[in-house]
Each structure stands twice: as structure tokens, then as C-alpha cells.
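Why do we bother with holo predictions? Because pocket geometry can differ from the apo form. Keep that in mind while you read this record for zinc ion.
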Amino acid sequence: VSEAACRSSVPVFHTDGVRTRLSYPCLEDARLVHGLVVFKNLTLGADYAAWHAMVSVELRSSLAPAPDRIVIPHQVHSSRVIDADAAGPGVPVADALVTGAPSTAIAVSVSDCVPLFAVDFEHGVIGLAHCGWKGTAGGVVEEFLRGLIAKEADPKATTFVVGAAIGSCCYRVHDDLLECFDSREAAKYSRPAGGGMFFDLKGVVASRLISAGAARAKVSIDDTCTSCRSDILASYRKEGKACGRMLAFLMLTP
Ligand SMILES: [Zn+2]
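The structure, written out:
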């Protein structure tokens, strides 16, 4: 069970016959373009340059209005946050991005890890973080919040969606993973089943956000599990390298 007091964010599934895209009703707004698009049956492996080139082309052609700029980082399961507005050309190495610039599209890729969306409509600041267990244990959620505040977002006024990712129904983990978390946190967000331990990464991300200053009422969790829904979503755990990837994207409209 995810962070009990957080609302569920039920995604809307869209398909154009080629790709599935998820969107979140709480982020629907004329000032924003957002989504989580699935690149199914993709076998790019570790070729980040090929992935980057492909999704950049697709984002540029699919977003309306067209972005002036697209910033997609090379992710390394770190807690590093980049201000996309200050990033030079080239691919930054980071696991979270923030921007206050309209028409700058930002994106992170996931396949079981948590895509964390942040939108402060009032102050015109958006951000995306890639939260796997390693980055989360390493503080990416807290760094992400600091990065948003540095762009003058108000954490209490920011809407957060803990997006589709592997759920505690399927995320079987070993003790060495749990030992990377505070023991109380590990105990609260794991449960034994079938001789193993199952971890609620989405619950941990939401709880850390709220502890770091987000408003509980503005944090929601998508309960969709990538492993349970590997028929249409991408689950590395369930399907291995050929699972494909999902790209979470955000852009403020001009
Ligand atoms: Zn599941």
C-alpha cells in the first residue's frame, strides 16, 4: 500500500496506433504539455546516444507547440539535478531537471523506476526526476526539491505526480537494497510475501517529498504497475533489455 494519505492519480491512456501515452488529469492545463510515452519493444540497450537522438526527433515532431529546446539527460542513478536553463549544448549527466523557460521540453526515461513530475503553475517552474531505488536512497528526491526552489518554485504550491512505475505488488528486493534506506523507512515501505520482500518505491518517493516540504494534498501517486502492465508499459524487471523504455516529458507553453 502506497503512502496512505496521498491521493491516487489515475492516468488517462492514449494511443495513436503506434505509441501509448499516459497523461495525468491533475496536470491537464493550457500552460503545460506533459505525458509519459511508451517506446515498446525497443532494443537500444545501453546506447544512450541512439536513444537520445530518437526520442529528441520524436518529441520535436509530436509536441504542440513545437519546443524551442529539448533537454534530456544521460541518467546515472545519481542525485544530480540540472537547471536546464543554464545547461550548455550537449547531453548533461543528471537524474533530474528543472526549468522555468516556456518552450523548453525536458524529459527523463524510465522502465520500472519512478518518473516524478513537478509543476508549479503559479511560478512557472517545472521539473522531472528519475527515481530508482539507488537515486532515491542517495537523495534525488530532496535534491530535486532544492533544485525547484532554486528556480523560485514554491514547494507547497507545486503539484507532484509520482508516475507509473513498478509497484509493491511486483518489486521483490533483497536485504542489500533495503539496507541502503533508513531502517524505519525500509520497514515501513516493505512487506514480506511468498518468501521474499516487496518494496514500495513510489511510497518512499512520496513520503520523502512530503518530508522535504511538499504539500501532501498536492502529491499524488499513479498506482499503475509497469510490471503488471508490461503488455503496454515497459518493465525492465519483467522483460529485461528488450522491454523498451518510457519517456516522461514536460514543457511550459509560451
Ligand atoms: Zn505489479
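Residues 101 and 227 are 35 Å apart (CA to CA).
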